[in-house]
Amino acid sequence: MQQPRRRRNVYPIKLNNSDASAENKFKRRIIQVHRRRITLLLAVGLVILVALGSRVVQAQQEREQTRVEFNQHQKRLQQTKQKQANLQTEVRQLHNPEYLDNLIRYRFNYSKDNEIIYNIPNEANQNLNF
């Protein structure tokens, strides 16, 4: 069973002239309290905003650093793959007897029978593909 609703009777306060200053003081006090509350809410909001904003900035910096590291690792991976391809080519060439013969003759100055070896300065050796 519902209880009957009570009605609040609010009547305006009838003041004489001496009480008018008390009413003004009360109104000023209410305004002052509201200003303090608004200031406090704004300060709390600002603190929260700064905290969240700093976290966003920190996350962006971490993301940028991760991206830079990723690019460095990608470069290193490409270099390693290229080196591996070069080594595989070299291994295939070492199985070729003609290439192996030329390589030994070039690096260790071996010669065939009745063959004379001439030493050429290093600048001219750059054109040789051994």
TrEMBL record:
Report TM segments. none
Question: Pfam families given for it?
Answer: DivIC
Coiled coil spans: 56-90
Q: Which UniProt keywords apply?
A: Coiled coil
Coiled coil as a keyword of this entry, yes or no, is yes
PANTHER family linked to this entry: CELL DIVISION PROTEIN DIVIC
Domain of life, per UniProt, equals Bacteria
Keyword Coiled coil belongs to the record: yes
Would you tell me the protein name for this molecule? Septum formation initiator
Q: What biological processes does GO assign it?
A: cell division
